[in-house]
Automatic annotation (TrEMBL):
Coiled coil: none annotated. This is GNAT family N-acetyltransferase. PANTHER family: GNAT FAMILY, PUTATIVE (AFU_ORTHOLOGUE AFUA_3G00765)-RELATED-RELATED (PTHR43792), N-ACETYLTRANSFERASE DOMAIN-CONTAINING PROTEIN (PTHR43792:SF1). Residues 12-180 form the N-acetyltransferase domain. It comes from Congregibacter brevis. It holds the Pfam family Acetyltransf_3.
Length: 186
């Protein structure tokens, strides 16, 4: 098993998941506003299963979609980190930076701060040449984070194969940043 990496920023800890995170994660995944750009909210069982899969992935790789904790109070905020894109997407397999935060934590810059640290880890520690991010065309808040962390819209929108064609969430934007682009903007 590889060593499990934990990352820090001034305000945040990106760490391996704990069973104590599951209740707050389930509450977050049941919130219609948090899940607005996903096909549906998650049940407690679905949320726990997702948290377990994410935790297992981190244990196997040493990195992944880390639990995000506000350091001063130890508050679980959601997750931020890196994952392998699913093969079913209409572009080459890539490493994605992603986030999902509780509604109470929105507007504090946490997604930008944590995603920036995840990109730094991807480029400096993992030696990844390029990182992507994608979301529904209607999710302007996440697209704003993508821009703040130095990503660019590829203008290669795609229909997400896991989202029904009739859904307003079917069309997705694809953002990218290379290590060189990210370093030039840093």
């Amino acid at each position: 098993m590889p060593a499990i990496h934990e990352l820090e920023t001034k305000r945040l800890l990106l760490r391996q998941w704990s069973p104590s995170d599951h209740p707050a994660f389930a509450e977050m995944n049941a919130c219609p506003e948090v899940m607005e750009y996903f096909p549906s909210t998650l049940t407690r069982s679905e949320s726990d299963s997702l948290a377990s899969r994410i935790s297992k992935s981190i244990a196997e790789r040493g990195w992944g979609l880390w639990a995000l904790e506000e350091k001063q109070h130890g508050t679980f905020l959601g997750f931020t980190g890196l994952s392998q894109t699913p093969e079913l997407l209409p572009f080459d397999s890539a490493i994605e930076v992603g986030w999902r935060l509780s509604k109470q934590s929105w507007g504090n810059g946490y997604a930008t701060e944590a995603a920036t640290r995840a990109l730094e880890f991807a480029f400096d520690e993992l030696g990844i040449a390029e990182v992507v991010s994608f979301t529904s065309t209607t999710n302007v808040r996440s697209q704003a984070v993508m821009l703040r962390i130095g990503m660019s819209d590829t203008c290669k929108n795609f229909g997400h194969p896991s989202v029904p064609v009739v859904s307003d969430l079917h069309q997705h934007v694809l953002y990218r940043v290379t290590k060189e682009q990210w370093r030039a903007d840093a």
